[in-house]
# Entry
Amino acid sequence: MNNSVYILEDRAILYINGKDTKDFLQNLITNDINKVTDNSSCFASLLTPQGKFLFEFIVIKHKSGYFIDCEKSQSEEIFKQLNLYKIRSKVEILNLSNEFVVASFGFDKYLSIEGAKDILGFTFKYREDPIILDPRNKKLGARLIINLEKLYLSLKKLELKDNKIDNYYSQSHKLGIVPKDLNKLKNKLFGIECNFEELNGIDFKKGCYVGQENTARIKLKNKLSKRLLPIEIINGKLSEDETIYFKNIEIGKILINEKYPFALVKYLDKNFSKDATYKGENSSFKILVPEWLEI
# Structure
């Protein structure tokens, strides 16, 4: 069994509580807040009114409110955005990133802990701290959200050994799930094009939320023609917003060009092939299709 643990120092924890919290979140996020209980957490996003991607996060029940586990580089903006929507709602939003930390470890290790269940998003307490089976894909393993002061004692008790965060990023990228640099996606694609339906991040049965109209229309009218897919660089360097061509036909655009790159790809185009090698301005690369994505 792999006893590696990744301290996800690039994650932030916000905490939302107050009398109106449940309704407040339900009117904003793409998933159904009623799914979030002491034993269940969910993946969700916040979109523009047009349905474009802004932020993504995991929502976990904590005491009388909810933890929001988000990328640290987006946390200040999420904090501001939530406060903008707050208006007269009886809601308090706190940034607890200096107190709490997120640690991730593998699925097999998770299953070995007493109380664990093989259900996406399943949540239970370990010494009063929540452990969550990642609601997007169990190959991402589980997450422990814990007070920094208690972290190393709990990791010792669980017999977990600190591993390099790059290994976690690499695993996530291979799975086809964006591990970092989410700000590079903002306003550049629809939430549904981020594969949020397949990653259990959109509830099509819930009522209104910000961006719901366009999201539902794209789904109902089968208008989803582009998807966010990972890139495997063969050689060279990608440029952000670089257009991808196949035989002079445009089939996509590089959105994240760094170490764990992703592109928005016209995956239904007859010119797109996951077996093809694509040439960029200064690179050659493949476009990968994750196994959980049936296209």
The radius of gyration is 19 Å. The longest helix spans residues 72-86. The helical segments are 21-26, 72-86, 107-111, 148-157, 165-175, 212-220. Residues 5 and 105 are 5 Å apart (CA to CA).
